[in-house]
Please model this.
Amino acid sequence: MTQHPSNEIAAHDQHGAHGAHGEDSLPEIPHVLRQTDIDPRAARRAERQVATMFGLSAVSTILFVVAFVAVKKDSVINLPVIGPIGGQNLALGMASGLALFLIGAGAIQWARKLMSDEEIVDERKSFSSDDETRDAVVEKFRQGTDESGFTKRPIIRRTLLAAMALVPIPAIVLLRDLGPLPEKKFRTTTWAKGKRIVADVSYKPIRPEDIPIGGLVAGALPADIREVEELQGNLNERAKATIILVRMDPSEIRGQQIPGGDVDGIIAFSKICTHLGCPIALYQQRTKHLLCPCHQSTFDLADKGDVIFGPAARRLPQLPIGVDNEGYLVATGDFQEPVGPSFWERG
Model:
């Protein structure tokens, strides 16, 4: 097969170019010292610049906290082009952004002006690590530490550590902005001694004779629940305070969480399942069992509301009840255990 003359010339030129400009023939670029390498005053000036950036970063972080406390949440600032913007959001964004920017800018200035800029060629080694390799890594780390000036430039080291130590503070402060701490809100409800028990929806007070033996009131609430909701502006207390009332023959009650906490066989339990908080109302009159429709947790209301089946790990909390002077059912206190699902600090 005959090769075209033009292909022979092209191949010859390509080979010649490779030989003339191969890897071994690349010209070396001479290393040029920086001003800070030859002038101690320039090095000190660069050192002060880096330290100033780190120091201003620390100040910006402190200003973030000051802005969070001092600037009102409803303040508004009109900016050109952008328009109105929340004053606190603007102050927090500028302070945190400036703190992070100054750390980055200081680190870049440090690397460009003060750290060693000589190129180091490191041949690829095997992936296995022997004692010599580990020793070499440690030695290179020490060499890098020495060449960066981290140990012999204390002003840079201290300001950097101060700036880095203060950087997490905005995140901690923002966690506080998620809302007030729950304190004892998970452990208590609006039930209190003397509060009448009313039926849900109708809000009519309940007498013992309104519930026959074997009967169930699927939803009952404290009489002042609507006032509490208007005061708090949410439905949290309604969800926590909802109870069920069941009446059985007193001889069928094998045990109670609160001795004497019933009224003629009428017992009150939280309506909220202790597994994942589903409302419960599936009552088996013959067995005195209450079944959660979500995950089939089953509670024995005749025996302290204990769990007899399912994933729930705690019994249903019992509400102690009594009768007031007018013959209506009332609470004689709050639940002695937190209602609803368990939480990590319940103890």
